[in-house]
Design a protein that fits this description.
The relative contact order is 0.11. A ten-stranded antiparallel sheet has the order 1-2-3-4-5-6-7-8-9-10, with no helix packed on it. 0% of the residues lie in helices and 78% in strands. The chain is mainly beta and 178 residues long. A hairpin with a 2-residue loop joins strand 4 and strand 5 (73-91). It starts with a strand and ends with a strand.
């Protein structure tokens, strides 16, 4: 187990901790963290849109990583989930803008040893971005992706084939390959 707590200027504070486990055939680690910064004004006092408020930031994360010996080879995995939130309030004199943005992200990747010369990597990732400005706009965007990569080694030469399918709320579904 480990833990860390820090603090600093501009109202910054951070806490992180985790646990690990290891046996003959399995490794696993889990960690989590949180960070908050009260911040400072995003505009300097001489700027036309100066507002003396603090524009802060918050972030939370959770990670899982490990490996297990399986019948087909070693199964490795990792998962990372992140939640970020930023604040921005600006006073332009004749109107104000209060911006808020968030991003949620989830990633998972796995590597499978098919033989001493072949490996298959595959996984998925997802993110959701949300943003709004009071009275001006409120939009979000999300993307979900699936991917796979096959790698076969012939002495000093590698043969690789890969593909990815993304489904994006802005442009629809697209497949890319190499």
């Amino acid at each position: 187990p480990y833990a860390r707590v820090t603090g600093g200027s501009f109202g910054s504070a951070e806490a992180e901790g985790g646990l690990g486990y290891e046996s003959e055939h399995t490794r696993l680690s889990v960690n989590a963290g949180y960070r908050q910064v009260d911040g400072f004004s995003a505009q300097n006092p001489d700027g036309f849109s100066y507002h003396p408020d603090d524009d802060g930031f918050e972030a939370a994360s959770l990670g899982v990583k490990g490996s297990t010996d399986a019948t087909l080879g070693r199964l490795e995995y990792s998962l990372l989930a992140i939640d970020n939130e930023s604040e921005l309030f600006t006073d332009f004199g004749f109107f104000t803008a209060d911006d808020d943005s968030r991003r949620y992200q989830l990633n998972w990747q796995n590597q499978l040893e098919l033989s001493s010369a072949s490996q298959l990597s595959f996984g998925l990732d997802y993110y959701l971005e949300e943003g709004e400005s009071a009275g001006a706009w409120d939009q979000d965007r999300e993307n979900a992706g699936l991917f796979a990569l096959y790698d076969h080694r012939f002495d000093r030469v590698h043969l690789q084939a890969g593909g990815r399918l993304d489904d994006n709320s802005r442009f629809g579904s697209e497949f890319t390959g190499q």
